[in-house]
Design goal:
The chain is α+β, with helices and mostly antiparallel strands. It has helices at 2-23, 30-46, 90-104, 132-136, 164-169, 186-200, 204-216, 249-254, 262-265, 271-284, 287-293, 360-372, and strands spanning 51-58, 61-72, 77-78, 85-86, 222-223, 237-240, 243-246, 267-269, 297-298, 304-305, 312-316, 319-328, 331-338, 343-349, 351-352, 393-397, 402-408, 411-416, 420-428, 431-435, 441-449, 452-461, 466-475. Helices cover 29% and strands 28% of the residues. An 8-stranded antiparallel barrel has the order 16-17-18-19-20-21-22-23. Strands 3-2-1-14-13-12-11 form a 7-stranded antiparallel sheet, with helices on both faces. Helix 3 (90-104) packs across helix 7 (204-216). The protein is globular, with a radius of gyration of 23 Å. The termini are far apart.
């Protein structure tokens, strides 16, 4: 009896010690929680933003989850830990997870032409030239048809029609030969959604619920137009002239509940659902599919692009970082996962600002720096690796945008029709920068082949490589 009692006492003591050690973890300290709260409230004030929610998961445990500000300014309703927001292009990450789940089940294949699922159409002759892998990595060359040549959104009354995609792509060639370039394309992800519909014989949302949301128990994720009895659905706001104005254009453009645009950017979710999704991918997908999802895309010329399959790639002070970002009208979102540390952070917000001094991307990077105990990178101008004239020239994106670069003072002048003229200063070597938010430095890097520029790519310190900002050298001025 004494032995049993001693053994039982020892087990209880060990359990208590383990519990105490776990509670004492710096990632779960009250002080850290208070610091995160302070960062979030500072972001609200500095924006200012109406509301945001964030969640942090570490090794399967929720370290922090809370809402800040207002989900409904008019009614005075606060943002909460499970407040639901449209997540814009983070939707692509969920669509990629669904597609890869279907690949694991043998329903889809990554490298077969998509015309095996979408019947050949005489108006769109190239369906047999592009693959699912190329669509998921934005390397197929599909026209980004959700915006017209002037960068304006298409007619919201038509954009949700199932027939709209092929009508919009009718007689329009690919922007480039598949696999040779990378250009961010919402149109490509709408084709992914159509492939999923055809392959499963149901709707995109039915497939998402059956193969991803249901198995993972994600109850806060749905189409932005899905009916909801949840009280925590956030309203959207534009900040203009010092006042928050209601803004519902996002939902208007989404169209119907299972509209054609949903796979590319019209899902809604909570920060808690997003962090749970990301950490559950290791059990949802095979090791091969997860590796493909998080691997850089290799183009036909052998160069690598910092985007996987529906997944942005990057690093924070040497810590690998994967996930996605979203921004559309009055919503901003970021989902970031640090595989080496088994740390996941998601932040969603409901406000669009003019020239914001802070953003959810900046807030995520500052929180991650604090948890990982690394300093926020300080920008120190450097010496360019070459004479400034070596970088001058005309550059073109896969989507047809033209960028002109010339020396300007001790830096470079960048000019595009969409953004006008901007100045970049040398960081050192072949990198130049513009100072962004406190934890973010927007920079570009020139990649040379011999003495001739080959590519320029956009990068964010503390963020993801901006694979959608990539230009090829065309000629000298």
């Amino acid at each position: 009896m004494l032995v049993r009692r001693s053994l039982r006492s020892g087990v209880l003591l060990l359990a208590a010690l383990l519990s105490a050690c776990r509670a004492a973890s710096p990632l779960q300290s009250i002080g850290l929680q208070a610091e995160i709260d302070g960062m979030a409230r500072d972001t609200l004030r500095s924006g200012p933003m109406a509301g945001l929610s964030l969640a942090i998961l570490h090794e399967g445990d929720v370290l922090h989850a809370s809402g800040y500000g207002m989900r409904d300014v008019e009614a005075g309703l606060p943002a909460e830990r499970r407040t639901v927001y449209p997540i814009a292009s983070v939707s692509k990450h969920l669509t990629a997870a669904l597609a890869l789940r279907l690949v694991d089940q043998g329903v889809l294949t990554l490298d077969d032409p998509i015309d095996q699922w979408i019947p050949p159409d005489p108006r769109v002759s190239w369906l047999g030239e592009v693959t699912l892998r190329q669509l998921l990595s934005h390397s197929a060359g599909v026209y980004n048809f959700t915006r017209d040549e002037q960068g304006q959104l298409d007619d919201p009354g038509k954009a949700h029609s199932r027939d709209y995609l092929l009508d919009r792509l009718a007689n329009r060639p690919l922007d480039f030969s598949p696999g040779t370039h990378m250009s961010y394309s919402n149109g490509g992800f709408l084709l992914v959604g159509e492939v999923i519909r055809r392959a499963t014989g149901g709707s995109y949302l039915e497939a998402l619920r059956e193969h991803v949301l249901g198995p993972l128990g994600l109850e806060d994720t749905a189409s932005v137009q899905a009916p909801s009895d949840r009280a925590e659905v956030s309203k959207s706001y534009l900040r203009r002239d010092g006042t928050f104005h209601l803004h519902d254009r996002f939902a208007t453009i989404a169209g119907s509940e299972d509209g054609f645009a949903v796979p590319a950017g019209f899902l809604r979710s909570s920060a808690l659902d997003l962090v749970r999704l990301e950490e559950a991918l290791t059990s949802l997908l095979s090791a091969a599919s997860l590796a493909a999802m998080r691997a850089p895309t290799r183009l036909a010329d052998g160069s690598l692009v910092g985007y996987g399959l529906g997944t942005r790639l990057g690093s924070l002070r040497g810590h690998e970082k994967v996930g996605h970002t979203g921004g559309f009208f009055s919503y901003r979102s970021v989902l970031a996962h640090y595989p080496g540390e088994k740390l996941t952070i998601a932040i969603v917000s409901n406000s669009d600002l003019q020239d914001p001094p802070v953003d959810v991307l900046d807030l995520e990077a500052r929180i991650a720096c604090r948890i990982l105990e690394v300093p926020i990178e300080e920008v120190v101008s450097g010496v360019p690796g070459r004479d400034l004239s070596a970088y001058a020239g005309r550059y073109e994106s896969g989507g047809g945008s033209v960028l002109t670069i010339r020396p300007e003072g001790n830096g470079l002048s960048f000019f595009t029709e969409a953004w006008g003229e901007q100045t970049y200063l040398p960081l050192g070597g072949d990198r130049f920068y513009q100072k962004g938010w406190p934890a973010h430095v927007w920079s570009i890097e020139f990649q040379f082949k011999g003495d001739r520029p080959r590519w320029i790519v956009g990068r964010e310190s503390g963020g993801f490589e901006s694979a959608d900002w990539r230009y090829a050298f065309a000629d000298k001025p």
